[in-house]
Amino acid sequence: MNPKSSSPWPFGHRRAFKRKSSYRFAVLNWGTRGDIQPFAALGEELVRRGHQVVLAAREPYRALVEERGIEFHTMREDGTESLMRTLAACQSLPKMLTTSTAYSRRIAPSQLEAFWEASRGADVILAKVITTPEAIHVAEGRGLPLFNVHFDPGFIPTSAYCFVDGRIQDKGALFNRGLSSFMLLSFGLFLSDKINAWRRAHGLRLDPLATRNWAQHLSRFPAFAAWSAYFLPRPEDWPARVVQTGWWILPHKGPIDPRLRDFLRAGPPPVYVGFGSWGVHEKTAVTDIVLETLRLTGNRGVLLRNTVDGRAEYPPEVLVADEFPHDWLLPRTKAAVHHGGAGTTGAAITAGIPSIIVPSFGMQAAWGRLVADRSIGLTFGRDEMTVPRMAEALRRLEDPRMRERAYSLGALARKEGGQRQAADEIERRLWEAAEVAPVHPVPTPIEKPLDLRRASAAHKPPLNPEFGAPSPSLLGRDGEKPDRVVDEEEYRP
User: Global pTM?
Assistant: First the structure.
């Protein structure tokens, strides 16, 4: 007997699904650390629950993945960092689109084969379909369920808003839904000839118009919106298959660098400055601006090495390192200056600190505008990044009202438990499907905890949660938390 006809997956994506006591998940991924880290957070949670997870990524992220008990599948180096630096330097949207399209077409054939190999022996596939449209076809070829993940808003069709002109805006219900649907289609359409060559080789029906990227087709898949409902609420017209979980934050593992501990103890909370794992292309200019701004404003700084140049010495008030544990460090800083990637934005908001977002391209600008609109930070373009502008922005972050809002939102976001909610929903969906799925001959079904049977789509963050660990920059003189409770309804934007 096949899974229920009401299954959220098209038949081609459930024909090989079998009931098991635990499942093997294949995470088909592409990109830089910001794409890998959230999936590692979810993978670690799934492993903790007794499942197996294999994550396909490039070699630099092997340690990040394997230390979480996740199997690593090596993707060949594909020039991702070079692409990101090129996109950051693009001065026009058409140039960005043509550059990224040419890159995607070049790597699509090898990516399809790598994903096919990574999914061997899997029971379920997880993917960010927007940046890896190949995952839909690999899942269909394997006959496996697919969970679609969104780290950025604007790509799940809704009448409430759309992503246009670098912002999340309401352009009217028809335009909002139509634009999001068109973007879904376009991501698959420009790869259709490459994908159809692969489909033909694997005995699948051809898809000349990339219909598997149409909103109507993707609406059959369970999907996650992995950002806080307190920051950008769930639109009312999203179907029940879309579950908003909150950010997937990867907890730091292992000891903290003694240099970082000593630096934090030596003075007041510093400002964090980091422009992502791919950095910036104008490093000397950015380094000069950051150091002079910190000097003028009397701030200390922790700087991501990939953001600054390779000068031999830095002032004693500045610490430079190859990487920092965001979940541990950011609550101990005063503010964050960053590029506006979804992961870094979520980490800063969850930490309860204000941000200055200096985006380069894509959704980074939208996150920057949302942060500014919520009055928990500021944003301006990379070409506007000057010492006077930066100094004024850091001074504005001292506003007690802005800091209070950032702190309140962080206290709420910390309670959402993004990867736990996602894992609950995954298990619930698979458990429902498995109740009438063919029984695997060896394992037997496990007793599911009662709380995993609830509909995650109906989940609402708790009212009036207690605070998590506070930001030291917001502590009182005696290091105690303010004695107050966050009102959920009052905070919602």
Answer: 0.82
